[in-house]
Design goal:
Length: 209
């Protein structure tokens, strides 16, 4: 399992397992990692997990650095050092022994999960630049939204379809049926309406063949 190590003057002071799909870091109460430092913004950065781990700056005042370079959003690799204010967080991802290592299947060859009753689904654009278009959700992962503004992923699993926010500008709320979705996955149901990056999408499930 991946984790963040909080390092102060070369000494590890805290070990945070990355168990959830999204974790927030900041000075304000309510963050998963709260840093009591005036150089840290209230909601400073977030760590998201999809197929890989990503760090994203949430519009902080002093920025977020990875290995000394300012970033907006970046995929994390083992050993990367994230600097937030005066704090360093080292990303570590446990290596898997060769005899148990999972083989990564290229996206083109990835098997499609079997859904209950063989039902498939699609997103119908009701509002926005793609109004009237239909996106069939046949892939294991489908990205929706607009890079740099707001991005989410619809994951197709055996249990159904799940929507997860993976990036976006501060103040841009992802909503499902009018409710803000932040930090958790939502199990999509037929008729759900998704508001993202100025567009409204309706999730529709096809009937059995």
């Amino acid at each position: 399992m991946a984790k963040l190590l909080l390092v102060v003057e070369g000494v590890v002071t805290r070990d945070v397992p990355l168990e959830s799909e999204r974790l927030t870091i900041g000075r304000a109460a309510g963050n998963d990692i709260q840093l009591g430092d005036s150089t840290v913004s209230g909601r400073h950065a977030a760590i998201s997990r999809l197929q890989n781990y990503y760090v994203e700056d949430l519009g902080s005042t002093n920025g977020t650095l990875v290995n000394g370079k300012s970033i907006q959003r970046r995929m994390l690799h083992h050993g990367d050092v994230i600097r937030i204010g005066r704090h360093e967080l080292r990303f570590e991802e446990a290596a898997t022994p060769d005899f148990t290592r999972t083989v990564v299947i290229p996206p083109a060859q990835a098997p499609t999960p079997e859904l209950p009753s063989g039902k498939l689904a699609a997103l119908h654009a009701l509002k926005g630049p793609q109004k009237g278009e239909v996106v069939e959700l046949t892939k294991p992962f489908t990205t929706v939204g607009e890079p740099g503004v707001q991005v989410a992923v619809v994951a197709r699993r055996a249990q159904g379809y799940f929507l997860t926010r993976v990036g976006g500008a501060p103040g841009k709320a992802l909503k499902v049926n009018g409710q803000v979705l932040d930090g958790t996955s939502h199990h999509l149901q037929d008729g759900d309406r998704i508001e993202i990056a100025g567009s409204t999408l309706e999730f529709c499930v096809a009937g059995d063949d």
